[in-house]
Amino acid sequence: MCGIIGYIGKSEAAPILLEGLRRLEYRGYDSAGLATLNGGLSIRKCKGRIANLAELIAREPICGSIGISHTRWATHGGVTDENAHPHFDQSGKLVLVHNGVIENYQTLKEALAAEGHQFKSQTDTEVLAHLIGKHYDGIGGGATRKRLVEAVRKALKEVTGTYGIAVMHEDVPGVLVGARRGSPLVLGIGKGENFLASDVSAIVGHTREAVYLRDYDIVSLDGEDFEISTLNGGASGFEISKVELTEDDVSKGSYPHYMLKEIFEQPDSLANALRGRLSLEESTAKLGGLNMTPTELRNIERIVLTGCGTACHAAMAGEYLLESLAHLPTEVEFASEFRYRNMPMNKDTVVFAISQSGETADTLAALRESQRKGHRTLGICNNVASTIARESDGGVYMHAGPEIGVAATKSFTSQVTILTLLGLLLGRIRHLSTSEGIQIMEELQAIPEKVRSILKQSDYIKTIAEKYSYAKAMMFLGRQFNYPVAMEGALKMKEISYLHAEGHPSAELKHGVIALISPEVPSVFIAPDDSVYDKNISNIEEVKARKGPVIAIGTEGDTKLAKVADDVIYIPRCPDYLSPLLTVIPLQLFAYHLAVKLGCDVDKPRNLAKSVTVE
Ligand code: AGP
Fold it and tell me: 457-603 belongs to which homologous superfamily?
């Protein structure tokens, strides 16, 4: 997911643009660049980190109080200086930065080349810059804001694919133009200055009001004002929102990494997920955002949960939760599969799209496909103004606060908590008794403090991580509610430490997995004192018999695990259905400490982006 910042106002643009790019670093990128306008256009761009770009600008300063900047996560074209954004048009008077994929760029490029356009890069973005420049020159007349906006409009009408863009033209020095379709773009409203950003976290230090642009919006802004219209020229019913985020929210504070901060925020983020959603008098959950009446909720016959990565693992836990608490048939599908699968679903099937960012392309596509077939589609998102949150028929916000680290941590536990609340709500209008409802609520309310007690073991878990840092591969194994946690633990390990890690149901060992067990391949067993505890113990013994090291996650007071496993991390006792909220915590810390030991870039792991807004 690329990052975009635009600035127009009275201050020097370059420092503000660089600061904004640094706040977007967490999203993952491989090159960066910026352009300013001060009489003429100046561009500085290079592959590698933003620090490289800052050094380049220190060597070759550029000035101007209007500018655009970009962090690129390569889709079309390799990681090179030339392919970094911004890109010029043919005239060299227009520059553009872009987040998204122009799917018909080859066709457009051939047509432009036939008219004499010459391209310097392999990117789809440069084609869009040339297309806008061609329309700007074609419209003719004076160098006006309207002419630039119309050139952008004409060009975007020829485009298929996704875009979030910021555009500047040398002949129209007092104007920035932005537009979006499928990639997020925010207008930040300042005092005597205005901003564009692909994520509001990049400009929290400069604005307390924002407009979250919607698909097909085109915005033009100067230092004092802005105008928004739609691609077909109509009025955009935009809203100005308060920016609740603060600089503290998006800073690491005293933590060495965002990931560790967010792991330790979980007692609070879980409390936020529960806040105002438990009704003691009715001994059930209250989820008003679903926008469904009790009758509509009772008529649900099947639920489909979809998402990507960690969100899909939360969905897998949700499957067990909804079947157990609400006796509702539930199915989970990776969003990237769901969108093309054409799954038979009767009219009373409800689809939940789960996404921390609310911008994941596959999950958004799965949502739109469900709506296309007439299904009520609900979102479980963290980013309030995100596309999935806005396009859903309703949903439940995670209220987890910004999750900056690429590796999802608090978003997983918040998503599972919300799915538990959903199970309680749907169970209580079907078969759960009042006393059962109260018991579930009391157990849920005890979770944040239980998580806090596990976090106190971070140093101990660090010693275990360092003990096993020799591993070249790891197995994560769990059963029932903890099979999804095994999948999540493996994902955490692989994405930040680059170790080969696999998650499996424990019983799958016999069906092939055990062939991989050796002294060099530790196995992490999630074996709390639950209904399948003895089965896990047997699996651990099978691994030990083949000299495989075993790290176990067990329940406080368990005296058996320490006799069979090499190392044990204990968690407080809780009901089976809540155990994912506790068993995942040691796995998050285990992966974190091992990645740090290996010297990996924990917050910005290689090849990964925080939100994958392209297919
Ligand atoms: C998980 O640690 C990764 N960051 C990734 O798998 C992520 O969960 C996935 O891309 C989905 O992101 P979303 O929740 O923002 O849709």
Answer: Glucose-6-phosphate isomerase like protein; domain 1 (3.40.50.10490)
602 CB within 6 A, ligand 1 = no
593 closest CA partner among 507, 493, 508: 493
Give dist(CA 560, CA 239) in Å, integer: 59
- Decide whether any atom of ligand 1 lies within 6 Å of the 357 Cβ: yes
> Which atom from ligand 1 is nearest to the alpha carbon of 610?
4
* Residue 495 Cβ contacting ligand 1 at under 6 Å: yes
Candidates 3.40.190.10, 3.40.50.10380, 3.55.30.10, 3.40.50.10490; correct CATH number of 252-455? 3.40.50.10490
Among 109, 134, 492, 610, the one annotated catalytic: 610
Distance from Cα 523 to the centre of ligand 1, integer Å: 24
| 27 and 82 Cβ atoms separated by less than 8 Å | no
- Per the annotation, the verdict on 2 as an active-site residue is yes
Question: d(Cα 506, Cα 514) in Å, to the nearest integer?
Answer: 10
H helix or E strand, kind and range, residue 129: helix 124-139
| Predicted confidence (pLDDT) per residue in 358-403, tens digit | 999 999 999 999 999 999 999 999 987 788 998 999 999 999 988 9
Q: How far is the CA of 409 from the centre of ligand 1 (A)?
A: 10
Answer whether 482 contacts ligand 1 (Cβ < 6 A). Answer: no
Strands 186-189 and 302-307: unpaired
Q: Is 610 a catalytic residue?
A: yes
Lookup result for tokens 């968690």: 571
Residue located via tokens 């965002």: 258
pTM of structure: 0.79
As a whole number of angstroms, the distance between CA 334 and CA 582 comes to 24
Q: What is the pLDDT of residues 538-581, one digit of tens each?
A: 999 999 999 999 999 999 999 999 999 999 999 999 999 999 99
